[in-house]
Design goal:
The complex is a heterodimer of chains A (399) and B (292).
Chain A (H helix, E strand, L loop, with lengths): L1 E6 L6 H12 L6 E6 L17 E4 H5 L2 E7 L5 H4 L3 E9 L12 H8 L6 E4 L2 H10 L5 E2 L23 E6 L9 H9 L5 E6 L9 E3 L4 H9 L3 E4 L8 H8 L3 E5 L14 E4 L4 H13 L1 H17 L3 H17 L5 H43 L2 H17 L3
Chain B lengths: L13 H20 L2 E5 L5 H7 L3 E9 L2 H6 L5 E9 L5 H11 L5 E5 L9 H12 L3 E7 L1 H4 L12 H10 L5 E5 L31 E6 L17 H40 L2 H4 L3 H7 L2
Parallel strand pairs in B: 1-2, 1-4, 2-3, 4-5
Antiparallel strand pairs in B: 5-7, 6-7
Helix pairs in contact in B: 1-2
The chains are: A alpha/beta (399), B alpha/beta (292).
Chain lengths: 399, 292
């Protein structure tokens, strides 16, 4: 059985890393997996673990072959999926990717529409499976991401840390709005107890004790092992991997109740769940861990127990192999309901766009007198006379 | 050898045996009603014999990777025909051998506590789904290892709520799922009473953590019904089992200590032999002579 996993690129990202690992693992189960780049490469590939074990093809090369299963792994790769000669087509949904875009971003609609395609779906989180099953009458296959147990290795013993500052790790791109990195830094700034903050990011202009990254998995594991808490205040997540990786190395977590957290974070047992937009509450939770070392140790022990019960990549690969065989066995989904759903979503988008246009027109009508006034005051004599007023207005206007 | 109770015998801890007995008892209505029953990972067949000893069975196909256990299995069953298949269910060949032995008439397959032992369960799972589509009824179980975070050296995969959900989604949508939960109990018997005791109805707890997940799929899956089973505790047997385990562990630890000492001695000796001659041949006397 041969399978094409379509990826947009091989740049550093959790999503691509997951696909590379699955492609590598299913080989042990007699599945010949290939990574197909859905777009031209312009940057060097990130050195993902095991990437050398997997064949990588361009879309042009992949078009010349026949595939038992072709599988899109990111919403933008679904169009390339339809260009391949495949007996079955599937969609590995790692998040509801429309949520990565703000409501007025047109890409949001593009990502959402891909869920209407008549494709079999494999996903990595139960919440995604359940949401998609509510949206469409189709059984979704579930394969949770594994963890590299050799890299994120659990310590044989967890020493109690009675003294020293609370060692906090924040990871993520601060420029990605839904990662909540800014909120995490603000929360740490409000802490009263001694702490040491490490931020893992490519950005450098941040207020932290230590800024590192990008880091390899091995370096991340070493960082988690010397940390007490992974602080992650995301607004959108798929499977929510970083706190789980931290748990494997004996760090507890302070997280928002973001999607994916419900799969393994238990408030008061292996971590603390805090609210969004509540830096004060989050900083109090961190202070509590810094003060109450018995609680900290109990959460770290709970985190380690959770980690032990999580599947390895080998187990996840077995499950993915079973899912791919099931995709090949099941009949392709009926295109009729898919078209109906897509047309209905397009119709909804047209209505939403019409509303935006009508609101814009109404606003333009209301703004017209102001624009006329603006043109008048821009004329030279008036402009000179009104200059002091304009300076005052700039000083007092709300930002 | 440390006993993880992977193989059920007459000496197995009663609380583990009753769990196996209950699973076979739950499958018994299906097994009795079909012309062919296949028990995957049958072991010595102890629990199956307890549940089905009084049943007139048709064709029985017993499958295990252990020839000795397989030889004992099925001796206490009343079957028209018994076929024994020694097979590794982690391989395509092993699964094909079982399918070849099943015959044409659809029947039932029990697969209790097998999947977690397989290096890959993909060929077996695929075969079970295909058998169900062909009219066979499958009853299978996996343990809830994940809840205890037990790293059982005999289990290749770790099962829990999440992993079971993954499995469930690979099975037909109408699969019947049951959660097996241990019970606590006690009995009080007046001297002279030797009859069976009625156990009062057990109210299942909604939040009870299961010890095992059981799933049935295929045409007779609905015959898997809720039930409980109680057997008298064998405290003497349990004590014997625990002492045996303790003793085995102590022996293993002693052997490990000896092995470690041997490895250390070998490493030291190797280092000494590889060292330069003046160091290799030195004795306390030569060292003392060199010191001022």
């Amino acid at each position: 059985m041969n399978v094409a996993f379509l990826v947009n690129d091989l740049q550093l990202s959790g999503g691509v890393g997951v696909v590379v690992e699955h492609a590598r693992q299913v080989g042990r189960h007699g599945i010949d997996a290939t990574l197909v780049l859905a777009r031209e490469r312009d940057d060097p590939d990130w050195r993902f673990r095991g990437l050398g074990d997997v064949e990588v093809l361009s879309l042009g090369e992949a078009r010349t072959r026949s595939w038992d299963v072709a599988i899109a792994t990111w919403w933008e790769t679904t169009s390339a999926l339809l260009e391949l000669d495949a007996a079955r087509r599937a969609y590995f949904v790692q998040s509801l990717e429309d949520r990565f875009y703000r409501p007025d971003d047109p890409q949001r609609l593009g990502a959402a529409l891909t869920h209407d395609l008549p494709l079999q779906v494999i996903t990595e989180a139960r919440w995604i499976a359940e949401t998609l099953e509510e949206l469409r009458d189709q059984r979704v296959l579930l394969v949770r991401n594994g963890i590299s147990k050799d890299v994120f290795a659990a310590p044989a013993e967890l020493p109690v840390r009675l003294h020293g500052p609370l060692r906090i790790v924040v990871e993520g791109n601060p420029h990605v709005w839904f990662k909540g990195v800014g909120e995490a830094l603000a929360s740490v700034r409000q802490m009263r107890e001694p702490h040491h903050l490490t931020v893992v990011t490519a950005a450098r202009d941040l207020d932290a004790d230590e800024i590192v990254g990008p880091l390899s998995h091995e370096e991340m594991a070493a960082l988690y092992a010397r940390s007490d808490v992974v602080l992650k205040l995301s607004r959108v997540e798929g499977m929510f991997g970083p706190p789980l990786e931290g748990m494997h190395c004996g760090a507890t977590c302070v997280v928002t109740a973001v999607t994916g957290a419900e799969e393994y974070v238990e408030h008061g047992r292996n971590g603390l769940v805090v609210d969004w937009d509540d830096p004060r509450g989050t900083s109090r939770a961190l202070d509590l861990l810094a003060r109450d070392r018995a609680l900290l140790h109990s959460l770290r022990l709970g985190a380690l127990a959770t980690a032990r019960s999580w599947p390895s990549w080998e187990q996840a690969g077995t499950m993915m192999a079973a899912a791919l065989r099931e995709v090949a066995r099941r009949p392709a989904p009926d295109a009729g309901p898919a078209f109906a759903a897509a047309l209905s979503d397009v119709r909804a988008a047209i209505e939403a766009q019409a509303l935006v246009v009508s609101q814009r027109d109404r606003l333009r009508y209301r703004v017209a007198p102001l624009e006329r006034l603006d043109r008048v005051v821009e004329r030279r004599p008036l402009r000179w006379l009104l200059a002091p007023l304009r300076r005052v207005w700039r000083r007092v206007r709300p930002s | 050898m440390a006993d993880w109770q992977e193989r059920i015998t007459r000496d197995t801890k009663p609380s583990i045996r009753v769990e196996h007995d209950l699973r076979y008892a739950a499958a018994a209505p299906v097994v009795r009603a079909v012309p062919t029953w296949c028990d995957l990972g049958c072991g010595a067949g102890v629990a199956a014999a307890d549940a089905l000893a009084d049943a007139d069975l048709g064709r029985v196909v017993l499958v295990d990777a252990d020839a000795d256990a397989l030889d004992q299995a099925g001796r206490d069953l009343r079957a028209r025909e018994t076929v024994r298949v020694e097979a590794d269910l982690a391989t395509e060949e092993g699964v094909a051998a079982v399918r070849g032995a099943l015959g044409d008439a659809p029947g039932a397959v029990t697969c209790f506590e097998v999947i977690e032992h397989l290096e890959t369960f993909v060929p077996l799972l695929e075969a079970l789904v295909e058998l169900a589509a062909a009219g066979w009824t499958i009853v299978a179980s996996v343990p809830n290892d994940a809840f205890w975070a037990l790293e059982n050296p005999y289990h290749h995969t770790m099962w829990g709520e999440g992993a079971f959900e993954e499995l469930r989604r690979l099975l037909p949508a109408d699969a019947v799922v049951a959660r097996q939960v241990p019970l606590d109990g006690s009995q009080l018997v007046v001297e002279g009473d030797d009859g069976a005791l009625d156990v009062p109805p057990v109210a299942p707890r909604a939040d009870a953590v299961p010890s095992h997940f059981v799933v049935a799929f295929g045409p007779r899956a609905a015959e898997l019904t809720s039930r409980a089973l109680a057997i008298g505790s064998d405290l003497d047997g349990r004590r014997r089992w625990e002492r045996q385990r303790e003793s085995t562990l102590a022996v293993l630890e002693a052997e490990l200590e000896e092995l470690r000492a041997y490895v250390k001695w070998s490493s030291d000796e190797l280092a000494r032999l590889n060292a330069p001659a003046e160091i290799r041949d030195q004795t306390p006397e030569t060292v003392a002579r060199r010191e001022p």
